[in-house]
Amino acid sequence: MTKLSLDAIKVISTIKSTGSFSMAAEVLHKTPSAISYRVSNIESKLCVKLFHRNGPIVSLTDEGEFLLQEGIWILHAMQDLESRVKNIPKTDGNIRIAVDKFFLLETITQDIRDYIKHCPNANISVQRESLNGTWDALKNNRADLIIAIGQIPESVQAKTLMLGKLEFVLCVSPSHPFAAQKKAVSKNQRLNDIVVAIADSSHELPKRNAGILPRQRQLVVCDVESKLALLKRGIGHGFLPSSLIEQELRRGELVTVPVDTQKGDEMIWLAWHPASKGDGFNWWYERLLRKSDVCSLMGREVVREGGYPWCNY
């Protein structure tokens, strides 16, 4: 039997984050004496001193820092395992899909209609998440299959397939001051203007601030439709995929402007829970893979001009 438990790591982590035994006791709903006894018991079993004690203030020793550094990932892994065990994907026709908000609902509308015909008794959950929120839905088993963008977070256990990438451009209303200038929009100009951004919907994963400069004023909205509406009214500036704003550009509601610091491309991923299976999952997996003949099914990078890879035009 090991001398160290997951509960011990949690206690040590909480003491470090709160800075005292009494505050840790409050967070863990225990008495300070119980926390002090627990720490003394851990130190006795390991034959090491984990904390420097200076009255009510405590700090980790080198041994304590090493233990926490090596042990915290085990604690996180166990918490993730508990979450996944509680939410093992079902094997029936029910399906839970999360789609990044940069892909409009029309992306999969016809597929939803077809699936209802294919499996009329199945329950369908379609979530629209943004940025790391889509990956978060998969990590916490709120989705069986996702269409996500960006870098795959390290803590997300998933099977993935790269389907392409989105190229972003800086866009504004024709009435916006940026539209009248011929030179590239500078960093200082952007800092002096407000950026319209879509909020990252992640619950647990670190939130991303895509296309936002440090200390820049932000107007944060919940979806692409809201961002488009504000930009078209001349409010602020923002990065959007060029394929998404084709109609707005054609109608003269938005214009693209050069920028000295461009936002990077975003990779498009099809990702699924490692335990996902069943008729519903198989149907959607195959459908999303063959949605477009310009998407690579071997994981190569594909650039498609003029539309999203899965849109039914």
UniProtKB/TrEMBL annotation:
PROSITE patterns: HTH_LYSR. Residues 4-61 form the HTH lysR-type domain. The keyword Amino-acid biosynthesis does not apply. One of its GO terms (molecular function) is transcription cis-regulatory region binding. The keyword DNA-binding applies. Keywords: DNA-binding, Transcription, Transcription regulation. PANTHER family: HTH-TYPE TRANSCRIPTIONAL REGULATOR (PTHR30126), LYSR FAMILY TRANSCRIPTIONAL REGULATOR (PTHR30126:SF91). Belongs to the LysR transcriptional regulatory family. This is LysR family transcriptional regulator. It comes from Chania multitudinisentens RB-25.
